[in-house]
Amino acid sequence: MALRQRETLIFEKSVAGKVGLDLPRLDVPAAADTRPAHLKRSGFDALPEVSEVDVIRHFTRLSKWNYGVDDGLYPLGSCTMKHNPRLNEKTAALPGFADSHPMTPAEHVQGNLALMHTLQTWLGEITGLPAVTLHPSAGASGELTGVMLIRAYHLSKGAQRRIILIPDSGHGTNPATAAMAGYEVVELPSQTDGTISFEDVTDPTTGKVRKGLAALIREHGTEIAGAMITNPNTLGIFEYRIKEIADLLHGVGALLYMDGANMNALIGVARPGDFGVDVMHLNLHKTFSTPHGGGGPGSGPVACTKALEPFLPRPVVVREEAKRGEGEVPAYTYRLDWDRPQSIGKVHTFFGNFAMLVRALTYCLSHGGDGLKTATLRAIVNANYIRKQLTGTFHLQYETPTLHEVVFDDAFQAKNDVHTLDIAKRLLDYGFHPPTIYFPLIVHGAIMIEPTESEPKEELDVFIDTMKQIAREAAETPDLLHQAPTLTPLRRLDETTAARKPVLRWTKQA
């Protein structure tokens, strides 16, 4: 694709007097400017003056710089960047969903409420947890909601617990969430197979002893409010002792929160509620194929046990069955229940990101239970195919079997002074979005790959061949990787300066 090496900013294209449309002459008196002076911008001259052609070509060129899941493999580990089915978009755009106003009385949006209740039922069955809220707007929001449920539960029993246990392999949002909820975070160490260690672990470099789960529970006991555990964990490894973990926590009255970011490895195969999880969140923008980020927004529903149900955010969608005679088809009505005296309150305006809920239910209904299980198994097969093909080319710190993702590192390439960032940048030259890098933190130089179930073998093979080619280049011409990317419109940026001194606003040069 022949692209100009640099596309100038839209402000730099501005030419005085150039316009993209003609507005009719004002036939009423001009409105007075009633804006308070302190709310007006200062030092801002005007919007860019450009033609329609300028605008269209500018943003079309910029769009060709972007890489999305519709371009090819998007192997961000722990982010589950799968294909977003177009059927989801069609249903979300149906007028009854897209045009409904959130303040419409319940009797006029029965279909919308029925959809929410149906999705809650699906998510409850998938997780094995009977109570569900659809309010949280993303995974991190779901985490905070879940921890607030734990807090409300303990407070209802008059307990002021202060500690949340979190594995060293956990997502970065986990300790942040616990701290925001007012808890002290105590780290759980990983053992040599990548799972949570029940026993104390001695750091081979520093000699420092880190207390394992059993010791921490003995030491802190009823000070522990709960633990936040990702399963499968961020290495893609299933915490096979999860039921024992739940039992130990429950033994001191603590609760088990599961970070559901990696549910794409469990749906239809295992239910967290069945192995002792009390509360968890789900990422609809990951596991259930709704768009990510700017294509979203996201959605992070929370599922929990009956014991935590009274504390769910309000309002709650309630289904009521009308009285009927024998043999009659059931007739249901739906309402919003605000009368929740123990509720933690609202965590989102109105009822969550509704269009994402429509997409997620469409995904569930179009797959069916068997289809969801098949998707899970395919995601696991795809990840293990990549793992098998790249083992030996890239170093694998943990050899424990993995599910939906695999974490390599740069140990082999580092011998030639080629590191994970160099490998990621070189992938750009070959037309691939890089995988997640330098995470999880317990793997030095981590390269975290998750292909999802969306990818055909042909795409996986091209990616595998490319990674092997990059490994050969690292051994034979390492400076090529130090310079990468060399074929993209922009070369390698000074990321440290960009992070520390970001330029977030265009200013006209004198």
What is the succession of H and E elements? Answer: HHHHEHEHEEEHEHEEEEEHEHHEEHHH
CATH architectural designation of the largest domain: 3-Layer(aba) Sandwich
Kindly state the percentage of residues in helix. Answer: 25-40%
| Annotated CATH homologous superfamily of the largest domain | Type I PLP-dependent aspartate aminotransferase-like (Major domain)
Give the C-alpha Rg. 26 Å
Distance between the termini: 35 Å
Count of alpha and pi helical runs: 14
The average pLDDT score comes to 93
Large-scale geometry: globular
CATH class of the largest domain: Alpha Beta
Low-confidence stretches: none
Instruction: Give me the oligomer status.
Output: single chain
The CATH topology annotation of the largest domain reads as Aspartate Aminotransferase, domain 2
Description:
This protein has helices spanning 52-65, 86-92, 95-98, 110-127, 139-156, 173-180, 213-220, 242-251, 354-390, 411-414, 420-429, 457-476, 478-483, 495-500, and strands spanning 131-133, 163-167, 184-188, 201-202, 209-210, 224-230, 255-260, 279-282, 302-304, 316-321, 332-337, 406-409, 436-437, 446-449. With 510 residues, the protein is an alpha/beta fold. The protein folds into 2 domains: 87-365, Type I PLP-dependent aspartate aminotransferase-like (Major domain) (Aspartate Aminotransferase, domain 2), CATH 3.40.640.10; 369-496, Aspartate Aminotransferase, domain 1, CATH 3.90.1150.10. The strands form 4 sheets. A 7-stranded mixed beta sheet has the order 1-9-8-7-6-2-3, sandwiched between helices. It has a 3-stranded antiparallel beta sheet with strand order 12-14-13, with helices on one face. α6 links the parallel β2 (163-167) and β3.
